[in-house]
Design brief:
The radius of gyration is 24 Å and the shape is globular. The strands form three sheets. Strands 3, 4, 5, 6, 7, 8 and 9 form a seven-stranded mixed sheet that branches. Strands 1-2 form a two-stranded antiparallel ribbon. It is 58% helix and 11% strand. It is built from 18 helices and eleven strands. Helix 10 runs antiparallel to helix 13, helix 11 runs antiparallel to helix 12 and helix 15 packs parallel to helix 17. The chain has 567 residues and is of the alpha+beta class. Strand 1 and strand 2 form a beta hairpin.
């Protein structure tokens, strides 16, 4: 039996993090549901046991059903029949298995049929499913749309739609249009209210899982507007209504099992979520941390899949009388793949804990006034979540692409053939640095946390944490790297040129990210020996990267920008 949770000790390790007790207690309101619901945990150990059992189920379905279906789904793909999407047969089998197992709605409230889990096991499930099939992970992960309904919709909408999510009804987030991609304030799909009922008309494009049964739609509700202030957010029932037509499914490079659709809305009935005019300004922006975590989890799952394929092939493939894993050129590549995988995973779950903490306090605040200490902690974790989510999306997606590339390289000519899974993984990985905000946009979101000192403050907190004495030399090297970051930031600041800052932004963000992941890895290695090798390999790698960026910034002037300008 193949189980993608049980065969990965690095996942279960994350459930034992010291902060988990506080996260779970806040999420469970000190276990107040234990008398009301049979499935509610009685204490922390009971809650972790629940997490563990559900992740085992998802791990088994991923290893035994989703992964074996992945190649067939990639070849068959979804189809459009009578303006509706028909999933590939393997995709439908995956969906049926997870629905019948009752594992949808992991993070949703129990009153609507959910499991009320914290974000961490839910994000972990995204990694597990993505390792099996990155395309299907989009269908699984879009249940996160329900969080918007939980946070912002009225009670009638919650009662109508949330139980359906828990029963496996699929979701989509309908934002982009032919002329509105990253610039969502240009959305033009029209929302019109007639006798208290809203109707949607227009076109959406590049919609992931576009023919989903529950659709969250960004639309222009205010006549005469052309900016974000004229946009509202709506939920539409695409299961019991046939006014949304699928014009086409995009023919993509990868993640082929996930139907990316162009849609036409014609007098589609919809319900307003929250307040008019806040669709983009508040509701869509609130999804960003969750979306970045989702792609981060998907990326780590792809990295894991790429690494596993490479290791298996390197051990099996013989050349010159021995397995190629014995050659330094190959085992160095594999060790760096593993270090990047462990580093991005450590950053993913550190970030998830930050999101968990601020989301839990947000929920508590809706029920009672927070104490001054709680309020301060809430704000601190919210800031850390805002700072770390673009970092994890950027690094995890870039490392997934690098690991997929190296997995094909380890396979040699065989990796270029359809006979090996690494070829599909390589194609699936390419989208990860693009959707839900390109790497370049993640840099834009992250750079202010470099210049305002958010990352540096957290790095100083990591410096103080207890580690095993054997890692003291690692910490000293990280402290030198931190000084290089400080000096680089100071140089960019003193030049006081926005274009120059924009040009150097990625280098600065990467420096901060390398240092942060280096610290988290040695902290994790102090708790568990399995991370020791990755901590050392990653430190060697990141030290070179940080020094390289620091040297470039030190010698690069504003005048040097001219040689890079294309016009």
């Amino acid at each position: 039996m193949s189980n993608y949770y049980k065969d990965n000790d690095a996942l279960k390790f994350q459930l034992s993090h010291p902060l988990m007790k506080k996260i779970v207690a806040l999420k469970e309101r000190n276990y107040a549901d234990k008398e009301k619901y049979d499935i509610a945990p009685r204490d922390f150990e009971d809650a972790i046991d629940n997490y563990d059992k559900v992740l085992e189920i998802i791990g088994e379905i991923s290893g035994e059903i989703i992964a074996p279906n992945a190649e067939g789904v990639d070849k068959e793909g979804p189809q459009v029949v009578n303006n509706r999407v028909i999933y590939a047969s393997g995709t439908q089998q995956n969906q049926d298995a997870l629905t019948q197992a009752g594992v949808y709605g992991m993070a949703l409230p129990r009153q609507f049929g959910g499991l009320n889990f914290s974000m961490l096991p839910y994000v972990m499930s995204g990694e597990i499913v993505s390792r099996a099939d990155a395309g299907f992970a989009n269908i699984w992960g879009l249940q996160d749309c329900a969080e918007t309904i939980v946070e912002f919709a009225d009670e009638d909408i919650k009662a109508e739609f949330l139980p359906r999510v828990n029963m496996g009804d699929t979701c989509s987030m309908d934002l982009t249009e032919p002329d509105a991609g990253s610039d969502l304030q240009a959305v033009q799909l029209k929302a019109t209210e007639i006798d208290g009922q809203w109707y949607l008309n227009g076109v959406k494009r590049f919609i992931t899982n576009g023919d989903a049964q529950i659709k969250l739609v960004l639309a222009r509700s205010e006549d005469g507007t052309n900016d974000a202030r004229g946009l509202s957010y709506f939920v539409a029932d695409n299961k019991h209504d046939s006014t949304v037509k699928v014009r086409r499914i995009e023919n993509k490079l990868g993640i082929k099992g996930s139907p990316t659709c162009e849609l036409v809305f014609t007098n589609t009935p919809a319900k307003l979520v929250g307040t008019r005019r806040l669709g983009l300004i508040k509701y869509v922006m609130s999804l960003m941390n969750g979306a970045r975590l989702g792609v981060g989890a998907q990326s780590v799952g792809v990295s894991e899949a790429a690494y596993q394929e490479a290791v298996a092939y390197a051990n099996d493939r013989k050349q010159f009388g021995k397995a190629i894993v014995e050659f330094p050129a190959v085992y160095e590549m594999l060790s760096l793949m593993k270090a990047k995988l462990d580093a991005s995973r450590s950053l993913l779950y550190e970030t998830t804990r930050f999101v968990d903490m601020y989301k839990a306090y947000e929920g508590v605040e809706n029920e009672r006034k927070l104490t001054p200490e709680e309020k301060a902690e809430y704000k601190e974790y919210q800031k850390l979540a805002d700072a770390f989510t673009p970092l994890v999306k950027m690094f995890a997606s870039e490392y997934a692409n690098q690991n997929a590339y190296d997995s094909v390289q380890v396979h040699g000519g065989s990796g270029f053939m359809k006979d090996y899974a690494c070829e599909r993984i390589y194609r699936d990985a390419r989208i990860l640095t693009i959707y839900e905000g390109t790497t370049q946009l993640q840099v834009v979101a992250a750079i202010r946390h470099v210049t305002t000192g958010t990352y540096l403050k957290q790095i100083r907190e990591y410096e103080k944490q207890a580690i095993n004495p054997e890692f003291y030399s690692f910490r000293k090297r990280l402290m030198v790297m931190t000084n290089l970051l400080e000096n680089s930031v100071a140089r960019v600041d003193e030049i006081k040129n926005q274009e120059y800052l924009d040009f150097q932004a990625r280098r600065l963000v990467e420096m901060a990210g390398h240092i942060i992941m280096g610290y988290i890895l040695i902290i994790d290695a102090s708790r568990n020996e399995m991370f020791r090798k990755s901590a050392e390999v990653y430190l060697n790698y990141s030290e070179v990267e940080v020094r390289k960026h620091a040297a470039f910034i030190k010698t690069f002037n504003v005048e040097s920008l001219d040689r890079y300008r294309m016009v």
